[in-house]
Write a structure and sequence with these properties.
Number of domains: 2
Number of strands: 14
Radius of gyration: 19 Å
Shape: globular
CATH class of the largest domain: Alpha Beta
Strand order of the largest sheet: 6-5-4-9-12-13-14
Number of helices: 4
CATH architecture of the largest domain: 3-Layer(aba) Sandwich
Strand content: 15-25%
Distance between the termini: 49 Å
CATH superfamily of the largest domain: NagB/RpiA/CoA transferase-like
Helix content: 10-25%
Largest sheet: 7 strands, mixed
Length: about 230
């Protein structure tokens, strides 16, 4: 048995993330079986999520995240003047929120981006504006220059590999930063195909307050978005 590719071979339909199949099977019975999500490791889930995300962007033809969608109002409703929003510079098939950050800055929000001094060091957030110069981090992503002010964001927009509706996430690099900064609202940005039914969660994992996709705004039951800020 082996994991089915992100896009099922039959009829071009998406395969569920918990499906295992037999390559080259020619019998009459179904060529796939469901594997419980709890039986899949986070590494296996990450591979599936990356494949889905990559295929979705390839089919769509662009990784640019749409800003003129009705549910964007849910995010905008959380903002107040001079609030600091930490975004990110997208890599590969991650949802590219560059236009969204430009729009937020135009609305009066202060912007920040993740910053890592050297490989293995904890992530910080440094101030950034749409016109500011960027440098390259050791992990090969764009980040503010080391001379930019360190800030404490009010909202953190982070790219996801996967998510579920309980606010659990598959991500990378943000875990220690989220543990050190528990106050900011944690909002994941992803494509809808990156959703899983139930992701494994460790006791120390910090749940998301909301998930923003091209299709909807998802607010888990544990979300702080509904509470007074």
């Amino acid at each position: 048995m082996e994991a089915v590719p992100a896009q099922a071979l039959a009829c071009g339909t998406w395969s569920p993330p918990d499906v295992l199949g037999v390559r080259g099977y020619s019998g009459k019975r179904p060529w796939w079986v469901r594997q419980p999500m709890t039986a899949m490791t986070k590494s296996e889930l990450r591979r599936l999520a990356r494949a889905r995300r990559k295929q979705f962007v390839a089919d769509r033809g662009s990784a640019l995240f749409p800003t003129h969608v009705p549910h964007m109002s849910e995010l905008l409703a959380l903002l107040s003047p001079q609030m600091c929003v930490a975004g990110y510079c997208a890599m590969a098939s991650e949802a590219n929120i560059s236009q969204l950050l430009t729009d937020l800055e135009g609305r009066g929000s202060a912007l920040a981006l993740p910053w890592i001094g050297a490989q293995g060091q904890d992530m910080l957030f440094r101030s950034w504006s749409d016109a500011a110069q960027l440098g390259m981090a050791a992990d090969k992503f764009l980040q503010p220059l080391s001379t930019a002010d360190q800030v404490a964001p009010d909202i953190i927009l982070m790219p996801l590999l996967g998510f579920d509706r309980q606010g659990n996430r598959l991500g990378q690099d943000y875990d220690r930063a989220l543990a050190q900064q528990s106050e900011p609202l944690r909002i994941g940005v992803a494509w809808s195909v990156q959703e899983f039914e139930n992701l494994p969660a460790d006791p120390w994992d910090m749940p998301l307050d909301a998930i923003l996709t091209e299709a909807e705004w998802i607010r888990p039951e544990t979300s702080r978005c509904a509470k007074e800020r």
